[in-house]
Amino acid sequence: MYSTHGFGEPVMATLYLESCQANSVGVQALASALTSNLHIKRLDLRDNGLCDAGAEALADVLCKNSVISDVDLSENQIGAAGLQAICTALALNPVVQKMQLRGNRLEDQAAQHLAALLLRHTGLKSLDLSYNQLSDLAGRQRETLGPAVAENTGLTELNLSWNHLRGLGAIAFARGLEANIFLKVLDISHNGFGDSGACAVGEALRSNNVLEELNMRNNRISMSGALKLGLGLQVNQTLRILIVSKNPIRSDGCVGLLKSVRNNKSSALELLDMSVRASC
């Protein structure tokens, strides 16, 4: 079921019920009521089976609404058409600061819409794309996630955990991170970055002076990748939290990371989680 926070006026509930009777469809009725909303700031529509049509109806709301700043559309199977409508609407709406699109089965074709959003919406601060199906193509194709992250000028928190970023896509995404100067929290856990991706992230950390939290849990990183990641830790001065748990980095990888931090007198690292399948 949907939930709304901060309705403020009882009349909004009446408008919704009247519209629901007129349209015979809940989401269209909700969209009608929200269009004139002056009170709701957070909209939670998780797991409502909105699909394309529902997402398009809500996109129309976001084009007109100037109050809602936090939207959760997780687990709604909104599809490529629905996502395109949402992204287009958000690009025209500077008010929305947080968007959750977790578990919507978004595939590589969705990446171009997400990239356009990142390039045009400078007010968006937090984006959750976890539990989708974005793969290496989403990271490396022109005008997709990697280049968009490099050019984005507003996002401070990005969650891409439980996707399929690996290979060249992971490398391209890491290069985007290297150029980004706004992102503070990044979760890329449960992908397939591997050693090549870890190496690219290590290179990014050498230049990036903004990122504070990085989660790379369960990314198929071995000792070799951990040592390459450590090269970035030797010079990085802003990262406070690094999670590389559930990676087979072995004892040599653990020691290498610790030495990298020790050798960096300007390191800001407060938490280094290296727990793995086999004990270090």
Automatic annotation (TrEMBL):
InterPro entries: Leu-rich_rpt (IPR001611), LRR-containing (IPR052394), LRR_dom_sf (IPR032675). It comes from the Eukaryota. PROSITE patterns: LRR. PANTHER family: LEUCINE RICH REPEAT FAMILY PROTEIN (PTHR24114), LEUCINE-RICH REPEAT-CONTAINING PROTEIN 74B (PTHR24114:SF37). This is Leucine-rich repeat-containing protein 74B. It comes from Apodemus speciosus (Large Japanese field mouse).
